[in-house]
Amino acid sequence: MPPKRPIRNVFGNDDDDASTSYETQGGTPPKKPRSDAKPSVLRAGIHPLLLSEGLPYRPTEANSKASSSGVSSTYVKGRNNVPPESNPYLQASRGLAAEASSEGPKQRSMHKGFQFHKPGRHVREAEELRREQQMEELKKRIEESARKAGMQDELGGDEKRLVKQPPPDIEWWDVNLLTSKSYDDVPDTDDISSMLSRAKADNSPILLYGSDSPIDHYIQHPIPIPAPSDKGAVQPRGLMLTKHEQRKLRRQRRAAEQQDKRDRIKMGLLPPEPPKVKLSNLMRVLTSEAVSDPTKIEARVRREIAARKEAHERQNAERKLTDEQRREKVEKKKEREDEKGLYCHVYRVKHLISPRHKFKVRRNALDHGMTGVCIFHPSMALVVVEGSGKAVKAYKRLMTVRIDWTDPGAENDDKSEEEEEEVKEDANKVRPAGFKTLTTSQEDVDWSSNSCELVFEGPIRERKWEGRGFRARGVQTDQAAREALGEELQGFWDVAKRAAQSQDDGF
Predict the structure, then answer these.
(1) Are 472 and 435 contacting, i.e. CB atoms less than 8 angstroms apart?
(2) What is the per-residue pLDDT across 400-435, written as a single tens digit (0 to 9) for each?
(3) What is the pLDDT of residue 273?
(4) I want to staple 378 with a disulfide (CB 3.0 to 4.6 A). Which of 69, 154, 371, 441 is the partner?
(5) Which residue, among 309, 382, 393, 311, has the nearest Cα to 348 in the 3D structure?
(6) What is the C-alpha to C-alpha distance for residues 395 and 388, in angstroms, rounded to an integer?
(7) Greatest CA span in the chain, whole angstroms?
(8) Burial class (CB in 10 A: 0-12, 13-18, 19+), 352
(9) CA 373 to CA 393: how far, in whole Å?
(10) CA 127, CA 129: separation in Å to the nearest integer?
(11) Does pTM surpass 0.85?
(12) 357 φ, ψ to 5°?
């Protein structure tokens, strides 16, 4: 038996540890090819993927031999050397590339596959539709019951249901131009010339001509209404001088007055002034008299000094204003400020409970001569003030800067301070009622979130609370708050509520 030979691996190395052999597998070992035999050559072209620009082409020994046998394998960049008929697998891709490069749009298949709905989809949509209809019916019933109970604003918020009214039989601007109270007799035509010719007839329903027509050859000019800003005419401002310039002008003015007085004395129009003798210039003014009897002269000089002091104090007392005159002066000053223009400010306070806050709100309004009202609602407090530009400017700083709304203060100290100020008030002044007893909701007050917000500011033509001072009103519903503000100012309450809602929502 011939000896067993080890198996040669594919890499050409002998594997001595191999446990199998051709003999053990029952086969015969392959014959070793002769050294003089020529290897077989695969006569095929280069694969098209190797001819792309991204892959470099490196000819191998087999490719070089294939080229020598008549098959072209030379690589030329940017050109496909394989004829189309030699590779039928690329015909489809070439056709798609030709379609994409053409000017026409890309052809797409019009056949789409079926898309089936999942089971229960339409049932869920129907249930959601029924649920929405039920919710709408429930809202309508709640609004109807709230409207009957007078609580529509509390349940429905600020939104109001606007019901469109049917058109009238005749508009108010056409009442004087038609003989009837409707448009039935007016011909329905677009020809203006024919309509004007019919209007010239005697029994025409349109009163454009004739003695009964409100149209004549006179021109009616509208009554001019002055603007609120016309009252506040800007006065020309004086020249601004520095401190040095002001002192210089004062010296020049006093020197001119003194020289005029001296000239009048020289001309005999005024009596000469007695010498102003003082203890410091006694010996210089009264030389001989002071030497002869100094005690007598000193007593006389002291009497003259006391007389001059008394005259000076008497003149000051005569020029001093009384309490009534001082009050009238302040009121006239406020009236001059009001003539420049009136303004209205609206503030929303989340919690107006602290006596210190309420005292500052009403006291500053009275001191600045402002009128208005403070509405106390369980959800918030609305402060409406009106006054001059100077007054509202100071009040705005008070409400937005000076008052710390997060600090309620000591309750006992605030009450004592308030009582002392109320005692000092004038009896003839109208004291605001309700500030001590009225308040907002006192349940679970979070003072850290308490704030005051300016809701509205703008000019007004005249005061709405003239003669009523600054008062307080307590309400429980939104409708009562609107009635307290009046028909012209009730919109401020809706604006304040929307601002409060926006603040709660975090906007």
Answers:
(1) yes
(2) 999 999 988 876 554 445 555 554 554 445 454 577
(3) 87
(4) 441
(5) 382
(6) 11
(7) 180
(8) buried
(9) 18
(10) 5
(11) no
(12) -65, -45
